Automatic annotation (TrEMBL):
The keyword Iron does not apply. Keywords: Membrane, Signal, Transmembrane, Transmembrane helix. Residues 33-72 form the Glycine zipper domain. Residues 1-22 form the signal peptide. This is Glycine zipper domain-containing protein. The chain crosses the membrane at residues 48-70.
Length: 95
């Protein structure tokens, strides 16, 4: 009976945890996705060596770092876009 309850409760738990991300900022989403993806890949790689827990822990940390770097890259692109748009407006005003 315990296995059946777990099969029913895990999808519900997954849906509820995804619902908690509805109000997350872009930075929080990028960090979360990076950490989750890194933990999944780390756990998978760690399972081959016999220690999935450590693999998931290390992978989550590396993934969170990658998510942070991705967010910083996106912010730099946003700033460059806005700067270019402002420069274009200034040029148009002269003529």
């Amino acid at each position: 009976m315990t296995l059946r309850a777990a099969r029913l409760s895990l999808p519900l738990l997954a849906a509820l945890s995804l619902g908690a991300c509805a109000d997350a900022t872009r930075s929080e989403r990028n960090l979360g996705v990076g950490a989750l993806g890194g933990a999944a890949l780390g756990g998978l790689a760690g399972s081959f060596s016999g220690n999935a827990g450590w693999g998931a822990l290390l992978g989550g940390g590396v993934g969170a770092g990658a998510g942070y770097l991705y967010e910083q890259s996106q912010r730099a692109q946003d700033r460059a876009y806005l700067q270019g748009r402002e420069d274009g407006r200034r040029v148009r005003r002269r003529y």
